[in-house]
Amino acid sequence: MDGRITSIVILGGGTAGWMAAAALSRLVPQPTAITLIESDQIGTVGVGEATIPPIRQFNASLGIDEDRFLRATGGSFKLGIVFDGWGAPGSRYIHAFGAIGRGLGVLPYHHYWLRHRAEGGTAGLWDASPCAQAADANRFARIEDRPGAPASGMAWAFHFDAALYAAFLRGEAEARGVVRVEGRVEDVRRDPETGFVTALALDGDRQVEGQLFIDCTGFAALLIGRALETAFDDWSRWLPCDRALAVPCAAAGALLPFTRSTARAAGWQWRIPLQHRTGNGLVYASHAMSDDQAADILLRSLDGAPLATPRQLRFKAGRRRRAWDRNVVALGLASGFLEPLESTSIHLVQSGIARLVDLFPRRGFDPADIDAYNRETAAEWEAIRDFLILHYHANQRPEPFWRDMAAMAVPDSLAARIALFRANGRITRQPHDLFTEAAWLQVMIGQGIMPAGYHPFADRLDAGQLAEFIALNRAHAAHVAAQMPDHAAFIAATCATTVGAEAA
């Protein structure tokens, strides 16, 4: 059966464009011409420096050695995200990666922990998390599970310089035949009958033809938005933060193995530790905080000297109703925007690429493939949206912005999750959910949603057995963490970068 796609055009570079180029050049059968068009005159957003564990699968699928990648990007390891002040002023919890204890029978650990707490026990939920224990001690090591041995419960991701990651992937992609074209798009040529994009007219009287086009043009959304006018679903009624300031600063203090998110009066501040610098930013709602106030808060709270002037980003939370429209697939910011509260920006590029590979079209572009792509994309985005809304909604902060967020009506899908958990600690995971049961558990408990009960099967242990079970899980987490060296020492021994602060 013929009709294979033989030419792919990626419009836009940056992280999204070069991730797509690197992945497709490795996975799409030859001969398929892949062309990436970008202009050095157009900047990239480039603040997506924190990731979640699936990024390891993406890099591994490209045959990328982890240490080489970290050296090239100034990267460090990430065991989770610490949330300061989100539940209430002065509160703190971590959304740690990996496992929270080990289940028993058909039940996950947390039901036994809920019974332990209900009966006056004092063990903390995160006492049973190896990643939380290691993060708290500023430790890291790669602990892989071995056959026959108890699962470690470990998982990790990375912090890295997004611009350097894009450059790293560009080298991988060009080595496999991707052709980069420097230029700006002056016109999008379309078939008058189907509306499909046929070619991009560039400055200098040049034209690049293609069969499948991938829009990685960021907020501009030149193909999916301007050319095809694909509708955008606005989610700002639930996620009203619409601006961010980003600035790097000199690295100072310990090299921590976690991202930090600190709640502010009308938004939140991120801190992302790299080897050669620290990434910082403040996400805020412009109706509740002025640009000057945001800049003052951000600059006063840096750990080290700023390395640039804060750069402002303006956005609206939401997504394209169809991330794949006709023969255009949108990735990254062209497909929509969710603030980087849970480090999902780069992952959504990754999952979009994986979905495209799974449903890769022939030249006929069967509507069933396109509809499946869009259904799955919508389900994933909406589940992530709900997870982010949960952070804002479950709070006891006093500021007007936060009181409004606590009082707002949330999507029915999120309301149902909260009600189910609040009753008896139950968490259900849907097929396209990115975040695990352990992730939902940590945010709900961390921000003050304590279930009234627990699964009745947790009562099958007597008091002594329950105490022993809780103690064993705490001891396992402590043992795993204790095996690890200091995070900075591990990096120095395995993947120290040569990148200097001037390259940030």
Please, could you describe this protein's structure?
The chain is α+β, with helices and mostly antiparallel strands and 504 residues long. Among the domains are: 7-44 and 161-234 and 317-365, FAD/NAD(P)-binding domain (3-Layer(bba) Sandwich); 96-159 and 383-484, no CATH class. It is 35% helix and 19% strand. It contains 15 helices and 21 strands. The chain has helices at residues 14-27, 55-61, 66-73, 109-118, 130-136, 162-175, 222-227, 291-300, 345-358, 367-393, 400-407, 412-424, 437-446, 463-482, 487-494; strands at 7-11, 33-38, 76-78, 80-84, 92-96, 157-159, 179-182, 185-190, 197-202, 206-209, 212-215, 232-234, 243-249, 259-264, 267-273, 278-284, 311-314, 318-320, 324-325, 328-330, 336-337. It has a 7-stranded mixed sheet. Strands 7-2-1-11-20-19 form a 6-stranded mixed sheet. A 3-stranded antiparallel sheet has the order 8-9-10, with no helix packed on it. A hairpin with a 3-residue loop joins β9 (197-202) and β10. The chain is globular, with a radius of gyration of 23 Å. The relative contact order is 0.18. The model has no long low-confidence stretch (mean pLDDT 95).
Question: Secondary-structure blueprint of this entry?
Answer:
Elements: E1 7-11, H1 14-27, E2 33-38, H2 55-61, H3 66-73, E3 76-78, E4 80-84, E5 92-96, H4 109-118, H5 130-136, E6 157-159, H6 162-175, E7 179-182, E8 185-190, E9 197-202, E10 206-209, E11 212-215, H7 222-227, E12 232-234, E13 243-249, E14 259-264, E15 267-273, E16 278-284, H8 291-300, E17 311-314, E18 318-320, E19 324-325, E20 328-330, E21 336-337, H9 345-358, H10 367-393, H11 400-407, H12 412-424, H13 437-446, H14 463-482, H15 487-494
Parallel strand pairs: 1-2, 1-11, 2-7, 4-14, 11-20
Antiparallel strand pairs: 3-6, 4-5, 8-9, 9-10, 12-18, 13-16, 13-17, 14-15, 15-16, 18-21, 19-20
Helix pairs in contact: 1-6, 1-9, 5-14, 9-10
